[in-house]
Design a protein that fits this description.
With about 350 residues, the protein is α/β, with parallel strands linked by helices. The protein contains 16 helices and 16 strands. It has a seven-stranded mixed β-sheet, with helices on both faces. α12 (about 215-220) links the parallel β8 and β9. It is globular, with a radius of gyration of 21 Å. About 40% of the residues are buried. The mean pLDDT is about 95.
Length: about 350
């Protein structure tokens, strides 16, 4: 992508806007976006939420209003989406609103503070071009270009244009029988259950690694129809060395050893490497979705990646740099991989995965 073809930064647009800015949503996402806006001197007029969530709430000093109340106050306004969702009922609502109003979902990282603006894109132009060239098919390149444009513009239409159903992306993996599956960031076992459906419960072993004890307990209590394979639940965090880590527990998907923004108390957890956990075992498939610790998890699996080239499903959206640093790291560990980039239905650009085959 040439720089002159890139869209205007959403932050520049918001800073220069004459229409009132209305923030849509409350919580961590809103706090992050507000922090960026404060630093840039951007002042919103209002906060709104879906009707069922208003109930007299106030947030960051604003009285939270319904959309109908905002419409009664202003003839036209800009909506800034401050939450994430993959629920069709929610995303379709956002796309409907985007047809009536100027609407943006600014890209702010789940972990870290780097913002993908024109300056950041220029600073990392060489790495971005290198990754684009490494991608194995035209669909991956189209997704990559759309994601870059989205990150700059906050235009959710760019996300919709490059969506791929999860089932279609999974077909790249050609999952069969006798898989040894390593699930890093296993949450409550939902991805283990998906794996079981894909394999028709015929597999060799599953290693399900989850550091949050509440999530881990839910996973262990789940009534799996396991078939004839062996299931190993592991209450630990995937890391680049065996050590103790400070971990922010939330009992949800955002529990993380890296997320300074997340809610929840910090506790100590065991950090483990995949290399030492597996010993001489040969993994065939590794999923890595560990809330910003993807680099450390990859480093902790460098031996098995180099030696066995297991297929990888790697989240590349938690940190602003993930889109280029993680693909380059994978290729450095094993140059034999073919890299496929897919974005699954989600606003903002979460659930963007690199499929390494």
């Amino acid at each position: 992508m040439e720089s002159e073809r890139r869209p205007e930064s959403v932050w520049k647009r918001l800073k220069e806007a004459e229409k009132p800015i209305v923030m849509y949503g409350m919580g961590d996402g809103a706090e992050k976006i507000m922090k960026v806006m404060d630093n840039m001197g951007i002042k919103p007029k209002e906060f709104m939420a879906s009707d069922e969530f208003v109930r007299g709430h106030s947030f960051l000093g604003y009285q939270v209003k319904k959309l109908s109340e905002i419409q009664a106050l202003y003839e036209d306004f800009i909506i800034v989406v401050c939450f994430g969702s993959n629920l069709p009922s929610v995303t379709s609502r956002l796309y409907e609103l985007s047809e009536k109003y100027e609407l943006y979902a600014p890209d702010v990282p789940v972990v870290g503070e780097d913002i993908f603006d024109e300056v950041y894109a220029k600073e990392h132009e060489a790495e971005l071009k290198k990754v684009r060239k490494l991608l194995a098919d035209e669909k991956s390149k189209e997704v990559f270009d759309s994601l870059i444009n989205y990150k700059l513009s906050g235009d959710i239409g760019l996300l919709k244009s490059c969506e791929t159903p999860l089932e279609e992306a999974e077909s790249l993996l050609k999952i069969g029988k006798e898989e040894t599956y390593v699930d890093l960031g296993a949450y409550n076992g939902d991805t283990v259950e998906r794996f079981l459906r894909l394999t028709n419960k015929e597999f060799a072993e599953i290693y399900a690694v989850e550091p949050d004890y509440r999530n881990f307990s839910r996973m262990v209590r789940r009534n799996y129809a396991l078939g004839r394979g062996i299931f190993y639940p592991v209450n630990a965090a995937a890391w680049n060395e065996n050590t103790q880590l400070m971990f922010r527990k939330s009992g949800g998907r955002n529990s993380s050893a890296c997320n300074q923004y997340g809610r929840g108390a910090q506790v100590k957890v065991e950090g483990i490497t995949v290399d030492k956990m597996l010993g001489e075992k040969k993994p065939t498939l590794i999923k890595i979705d560990v809330e910003g610790a993807e680099r450390e998890a990859l480093e902790g699996a460098s031996e098995v990646i180099s030696k066995y080239r297991p297929r990888l499903v790697l989240s590349v959206y938690h940190r602003t740099s993930d889109l280029f640093t993680l693909p380059l790291l994978v290729k450095e560990m094993n140059s034999g991989y073919k890299l496929y980039l897919r974005h699954h239905p989600y606003v903002p650009a979460w659930d963007t995965n690199l499929y390494c085959i």
